Structure formats: C-alpha cells, structure tokens
Amino acid sequence: MYIRYDVADRIATITLDRPEAANAQNRALLDELDEAWRRAAEDEDVAVIVLRAEGKHFSAGHDLKDRSGPIPDKITLELIYQNESRRYLEYSLRWRNIPKPSIAAVQGRCIAGGLLLCWPCDLIVAAEDALFSDPVVMMGIGGVEYHGHTWELGPRKAKEILFTGRPVTADEAAQVGMVNAVVPRAELDEHVRALATRIAAMPPFGLRQAKRAVNQTLDVQGFYAAIQSVFDVHQTGHGNALSVSGYPILAQFDEMKAGIE
C-alpha cells in the first residue's frame, strides 16, 4: 500500500506514503491514489480533500524503474500512449474536476510527474523548502503529460523553467499565483488543516458551483483542449526516443533524480 486515507471533521486526507522513494509514482501508487480520490468524491461526509505526502519530498515524479505491473517484451509508442493516457492525463483531469474543493500540501521536491498530482488541486500550500520543476526537456520531451505550465506559471515563466530545467522556488510560485501560500515546513500540515476546516464550513452546493464556475471559465479559454492536444505532442517525444536504441534518455533522467535524498 502506497496511499493512506482517513476522514475527520468532514476533511478527507490522502497521503502519499512511499517516502523511501521520495514518493515516486509507480503504477500501483497512482491506481491507489485514483481510488482514494474516487472514495473521497463519493463520500457524502467529505466536504474538502487534502493531498499531502509523507517524508522529505512531495514527489520525485514518475518511477522510471517501475515493475509493479506486467513487463512488456517490447516498449512501443502504443503501450506508452495507453499507459500515460490513463494514469497521467485521465487521472489528473478527473481529480481536477471532482466537485469538491481540494488542497495540496507540498514540501521538498515536486518534480515533473509530481506536478500532475498538485496542479489538479484547487489550492496549493507550499512549505518554504518546496521546489517545483519539470526537467524532462533533457529527455527530448517538451514537458510532462498534463501540460498545465502556461496556465499555472504564465507563458514566459513556463518557457523559462522548461528551457532551463531549473526549479521554481515556493516564493516564485506564489508570486505568479501557482501556490496560494508559503509557510514554514513545520507549520505546513497545521496551516492546510486550518484552511480545509474553514472551507468545510461553507455550504457544499455553493462550493461546488464556485469550483465549476472557475474551471469552466478556464475551459472556455481553452484549458481542456490545450491539455488534450499537448498530450499528443508529448507523445512525439517518446516516439523520437524510441528511435534511439535502448531508450537511453530514461537512464539519464533517472540518474538526475537519484541524487534526491
């Protein structure tokens, strides 16, 4: 089990619980996480959903050494597309559109696939040590599967972090509106709990309609269509990598993440 789930005071808390791997996402973790989101969405006693992570880091992104499912004899673009469409794109969009407010509590590193977990949340509270990054351009791919960069950071900041691979600090993220608050690491859970408690006291239907209004406004502006179309562009990066024997860029990216303690 890679996910902990509990409910108290109308707040469902979903905890990533793979700290020994910096909460890297294998298939089992993502499937358990999706089930936890579904459970919270269907529970009438839950008004607010909190996503947090155990350990030093929120998430080191996709586990490129994942062996939690069947291992194909050969990696093909079709297999990559099927897996990423389900677990990276569809899951993130489903979590975004759950008709209940959600808050992500982020500490430490939030790398590449980690963005696919916090960006779908309605609010993000970051610890002072939080660092957000998407360095997958080094893999020959133009960004992670759920391409919220432009919406979350603005076009120029999005290009900067993609072109350079450098992380965005919590304070920078707050300045561009990607996170709602930055707090000391020791106060992260307490701050998020207080925020969730305040939201949980609001009328559920009003919260649902407010969330729907904002999300639909973004969709009218092109968010949903852009996410879908850029996902297909993302797959051309995999196609290019598959043309190189042995898909060596995976090893390069895994080496980069191996330095995270």
From TrEMBL:
It comes from the Bacteria. Pfam families: ECH_1 (PF00378). One of its GO terms (molecular function) is catalytic activity. SUPFAM superfamilies: ClpP/crotonase (SSF52096). Signal peptide: none annotated. InterPro entries: ClpP/crotonase-like_dom_sf, Enoyl-CoA_hydra/iso. PANTHER family: ENOYL-COA HYDRATASE, IP11341P-RELATED. Belongs to the enoyl-CoA hydratase/isomerase family. This is Enoyl-CoA hydratase. The lineage of its organism: Bacteria, Bacillati, Actinomycetota, Actinomycetes, Mycobacteriales.
